[in-house]
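Now for a concrete sample entry.
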Amino acid sequence: MRLMEDFLDLAKENTEKDLETCGILGAFLEKGTLYMTTLIIPKQESASNSCNATNEEEVFTILNDRSLYPVGWIHTHPSQSCFMSSVDLHTQYSYQAMIPEAFAIVLAPTDTSRSCGLFRLTEPDGMNILKNCPETGFHPHKEPDNGSPVYEHCSNVYKNSNLRFEIFDLR
């Protein structure tokens, strides 16, 4: 997907410094389908294992001005494998609580087995675990009692190379 390639190019400087980069994905709704057309890279604070958006009002201004929904987010794991950390799971929870179809894209350029993953929390098990988790920072989450995972690969996202997308780099 061209969006991921472009995002990796924009994240390259951070990736070379072992710093994560994050972005927000905006979509419009038409006839019951969400079409992701916008990538917004907010001002952010980055470390090797985390990234936090700052000045988020700038992101919401762009989304609001274009009548877009925040359908998810994208971020890099510059020196880690392609997975969802506990911090990522809490971030994903906030997106999925707003928009159930929301998803996360993790790009891990040094992971030789899987450099890209599209993930979401499982319904209802993963969502319930995160909803009831009071912890912050990196910490373990217990698996659902029924043995299902906390998160899974997305099956509700389809790639369409004909869709045009805009990039707003606010850094």
Q: What stands out?
A: The beta strands are 22-30, 33-41, 44-46, 51-53, 69-76, 103-107, 116-121, 151-153, 166-169. The radius of gyration is 15 Å. The chain has one domain: 2-169.
